[in-house]
Amino acid sequence: MVMKKPAVKSDRRARGRPRDWDDKTPQNTIKSLDRAIDVLEHLGKVGGHTLSALASELEQSPATVYRVLVTLENRGLVEFDSDGQTWQIGAGAFLIGARFLRRTALVDRARPILRGLMENTGETANLGVETDGRVLFVSQVETHASIRAFFPPGTLSPMHASGIGKALLANMPEDRLGKVLSAHPLERFTASTLTARDDLIADLAKIRERGFSIDAEERNEGMCCVAACVFDLHGDPVAGLSVSGPTSRITPHDTVRLGAEVCAAAQTLTAALGGSPH
């Protein structure tokens, strides 16, 4: 997390985009990849199909289609049924689609809730998920204040020194919590960081009791964060919402009020996802 001044608009080309970004002519496509996607899309429409049927319907040579299918099979995107000698969509394609749906549902539905949370509290609102034992920030609505917390999407943060991270840890099943804590050392960032496992466990118990977590300068000096957990339909923690800002604006007295706002927002998002509290 870093302090950020108001953004200055720039007319420069967005990073990660080539100069011919808007040029969609064939010279900018990868023909073999395009052909593979054609095979995958067609197989998804027709279901189980033989090699010869696919080749005929796609007007491609059987040898070319076979190479595409084997490549896709190696990545789990298609599967071969030896009994019926047919090719079908594989589990890998489902997993990719499921990830897209999950991302879309979470981020899209969270956006207006984040905006409302920012407007109600006057502080930056954040959305984060757990990935490989760390917090990944996936969305944010910044406050209009000149001094503010900033977690650009894609930022990774240790869970034990993060408001969202501690909210997620507090609601994890014990076996999952144990694995996360064992895999990641409790690194110290400030004098307030909880680096003793017993201290962190005690703090997680308090979080479960009151319903929200507090990062009181545990990751960055001068910054505070208040967070609550979002649950799926099974009651499992899937994300966290938070507000963050300087300690000059978020005092210990303010955390109760902000906690209530964050909990309400997290409950709204949980309901929007069809979830239920843990």
UniProtKB/TrEMBL annotation:
Record carries keyword Signal: no
Positions of region (Disordered): 1-27
Gene Ontology MF, one: DNA binding
Residues covered by the IclR-ED domain: 92-275
Domain HTH iclR-type: 30-91
Example of a GO biological process term: negative regulation of DNA-templated transcription
Annotated Basic and acidic residues bias: 8-25
Record key words, sorted: DNA-binding, Transcription, Transcription regulation
Pfam families in alphabetical order: HTH_IclR, IclR_C
Protein name: IclR family transcriptional regulator
Species assigned in the record: Meridianimarinicoccus aquatilis
